[in-house]
Amino acid sequence: MKKWLIVLAGVLMSFTLAACGSKSVATTNGGKITESAYYSSLKSTSSGKQVLQTMILNKVLQKQYGSKVKDSKVNSDFNKYKKQYGSSFNAVLQQNGMTASQLKDSIRSNLLLQEAVKDNIKITDAQLKDQFKSYQPKVTVNQILVSKKSTAETVIKDLKAGKSFSSLAKKYSTDSATKNKGGRISPFDNTNTSLDTNFKTAAFKLKNGEYTKTPVKTQYGYQVIQMVNHPAKGTYKDHESTLKDQIVSKKMSDSNTLHSVVSKVLKKGKVTIQDKDLQNVLSDYLSSSSSSKK
């Protein structure tokens, strides 16, 4: 299935397929290109049809779920990306052909679609229990990153001798962002995708106050991890809301689920296509007989 939304990492296309007439889009010594000519040419292309699909979907999503997507949430997610890329944020936007405003629009579209998925799927106790198997509450750790295994072994030896993790982080860690903070990194749970898998696996095994007794090999080098706060996991009922959110996030990557949800949203939106040449632009979705919750 063609993706309806290029979520965050892709190019957000911003063509407008309305209010076209005889006004010139461009002029040349060989003649002018009018809005109507441009529109006629654009609507016959797959990219032009995709833009119209996205514009329609965004309209109906906003109508049905706009009240559930607050500006504060959009801004919060936007600031997370800004913080993640730091000084290279603007360069990353340019590389993806986006402006800050377009990124916010893309974030909002993604959140609207997420609300639609949440509203149109049925989550069973069996699914919650299955998700709970891999669930980990957010933990807080300190870490020391070094390039050599022997250096990591020296750090562990010094820890066993009673030296503080904070002092060893300042002395040995090559992570400039955390070495002067005792190696502290932001809290993370099982859904984190920025940390190395080996790092997360090793961290989740630690109890409060414990540190890894052998170097942890990651894509960045060798790391020594100290657990600061590892909350009790409890039962799946204790984390039902979080588990549902994690299941919804997984469903956002499932093409069959998205197709079903989009079909329901569009049918509820009572979409009518006036241009006879574009009347089949939503046929893959509006002709679907799938209307039951998955």
TrEMBL record:
Residues of the PpiC domain: 136-229
Reactions it catalyzes: [protein]-peptidylproline (omega=180) = [protein]-peptidylproline (omega=0)
Localization annotation: Cell membrane
SUPFAM superfamilies: FKBP-like, Triger factor/SurA peptide-binding domain-like
Source domain of life: Bacteria
GO molecular function: peptidyl-prolyl cis-trans isomerase activity
Similarity comment text for this entry: Belongs to the PrsA family.
Official protein name in the record: Foldase protein PrsA
Species of the source: Lentilactobacillus diolivorans DSM 14421
Gene symbol of the encoding locus: prsA
